[in-house]
From TrEMBL:
Keywords: Coiled coil, DNA-binding. InterPro entries: AraC_E-bd, DNA-bd_dom_put_sf, GyrI-like, MerR-type_HTH_dom, MerR_fam, Reg_factor_effector_dom_sf. This is Predicted transcriptional regulator. It holds the Pfam family MerR_1. It comes from Microbacterium testaceum (strain StLB037). GO terms for molecular function: DNA binding; DNA-binding transcription factor activity. The keyword NAD does not apply. Signal peptide: none annotated. The keyword DNA-binding applies. Residues 84-111 form a coiled coil. Residues 7-77 form the HTH merR-type domain. SMART domains: AraC_E_bind (SM00871), HTH_MERR (SM00422).
């Protein structure tokens, strides 16, 4: 009985843990946070002091987005690599959601201030000069994950003492816009005669007649840049270059990058080769 006297009513436990009585009953029903004692006559639930730590973990896991079934499994995995992996995966997922939410907020702002924001993108027809590039091809979950490829390529270039001689960029290989598993080649312009080993490749890109949308500001304007390019193609009866070679693919050139300037000072050329 001495131990029972230290048990807390569900109301007291709720007050201490900042979990509502309704949620405590919910967690009990799903076997996630079961009371230490349940009176068989009245059904009153009582909780032990050591369950305060469990309740804190339950609340924190709930607050970062885990469902009831996942919380139950994670409580069993505390102190193991599975616990760490699950939190790391959830962290990455929440970062993706934050990024997407910021992009939606930015799009709403541009829609509200349509005329003003269009001024941050200008479209011109220009010849993009020929260049020798070192390219690194890979598949990433989404377009926003392009940075993963840069994180792999740049150390390889540094190891070979290869320094880009101009703005770097990315080529899109997919024939259509895809929502996942994006096939990209990132590239860095280098001096002719540069030699590399796999997974790097030297590519000779020819001069190309392109519609170029210059984007000033965040990368979430890239889709709008393509909209403006499409509008100008229609207005001038232009057609995009066709073919399976890299010279026919849409590409971006990063005239400034996030490691050197703030987001508002980014400048990106979105390029579509013409036939």
């Amino acid at each position: 009985m001495a131990e029972t006297s230290t048990h807390m009513t569900i109301g007291r436990f709720s007050s201490l843990t900042r979990l509502s009585v309704r949620m405590l009953r919910h967690y009990d029903a799903h076997g996630v946070l079961v009371p230490a004692v349940v009176d068989p006559g009245t059904g009153y639930r009582r909780y032990a002091p050591h369950q305060l730590g469990d309740a804190a973990d339950v609340r924190n896991l709930r607050d970062v987005g885990f469902g009831v079934s996942a919380i139950g499994a994670l409580l069993e995995a505390r102190g193991t690599p599975a616990w760490t992996r699950a939190l790391q995966m959830q962290h990455a997922e929440l970062q993706r959601e934050v990024r997407e939410a910021r992009e939606r907020v930015s799009l709403i702002a541009r829609l509200l201030d349509h005329g003003e924001n269009l001024m941050s993108i200008t479209v011109t027809r220009t010849i993009v000069p020929a260049m020798t590039v070192v390219a690194f091809r890979g598949t990433v979950p989404t377009y926003s994950d392009e940075g993963r490829l840069w994180g792999q390529m740049m150390p390889l270039l540094a190891r070979r003492s290869i320094a880009p001689i101009g703005p770097c960029g990315v080529i899109e290989h997919d024939d259509e816009y895809v929502e996942s598993d994006v096939d990209l080649s990132i590239f860095a312009p280098v001096s002719p005669g540069t030699r590399v080993e796999e997974p790097l490749h030297v590519v000779e890109l020819p001069a190309r007649d392109c519609l170029v949308a210059r984007v000033r500001g965040s990368y979430d304007q890239i889709s709008q840049a393509h909209d403006l390019i499409n509008s100008q193609m229609a207005a001038e009866s232009l057609t995009p270059r066709s073919g399976d070679d890299l010279a026919a693919r849409a590409f971006n050139i990063y005239l400034s990058t996030p490691d050197r300037v703030s987001e508002v000072d980014l400048v990106t050329d979105v390029c579509l080769p013409l036939s």
